[in-house]
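Running this now, will post back.
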Amino acid sequence: MAGHGEQAMAVKPVVIAAIMGQFGHPRGVAGRVAGWVMAHRRSNRQRNCWVVSLLQVQPTENVLEIGFGPGLAIAELSRRAGQQGHVYGIDHSDVMLRQATRRSAAAIVAGRVTLRRASVDQLPPALGGRFDAILAVNSLGLWPGPAERLRELRRRLRPGGRIAIASQPRCPGATASTSRTAARKIEALLQSAGYTKIRTQTLGLNPPVICVLAVNPDPACCRSPPASDLTS
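Update: finished.
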């Protein structure tokens, strides 16, 4: 009969696997543990704050996060948005909704943060109207039909509004090359969805975090001038 030590060694990989499997859609007890890990891992906090800083959110802006997880970026956004701005977020996990709600409880009570349980392919119609900025951190890979979702999100952005899509590959053996490949795929998706001014920033973690930023073009800027304006 195996001793207690051997039994513990056998159980540990099962527990770890159960928690790791929760990161995409946390549920139940294992999901709560996964949320705690996401909230307290230093690299996760650093990654979220960095992405928010790249968006350069102004005090009067309305911002939407897709897949807010335990709410690290939501809390940072609410600090930057000020009293006149508003931060919205959706996540398909009840567990993450509860954790993020606790983390930003004061801002929610003050009417500066609105969180909803929803998926990116079923955005609540009344959620915030049009946004000045949208972000998603390590959630694009979970979206059904990401190209179509990005087109839909562009329709929810104001002309000139910004989007930030961040990814830190978590597959075994991920390297800087893996991150560069992820960036190129995201750049191509954003370009096909009609975004402009696409650029990529990199945060030097292991593996590197990439954040692809783009803009919803203003139709007025792209419209051809009247023929009378083209003649001298």
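The chain has two domains: 7-36, 39-219. More later if anyone needs it.
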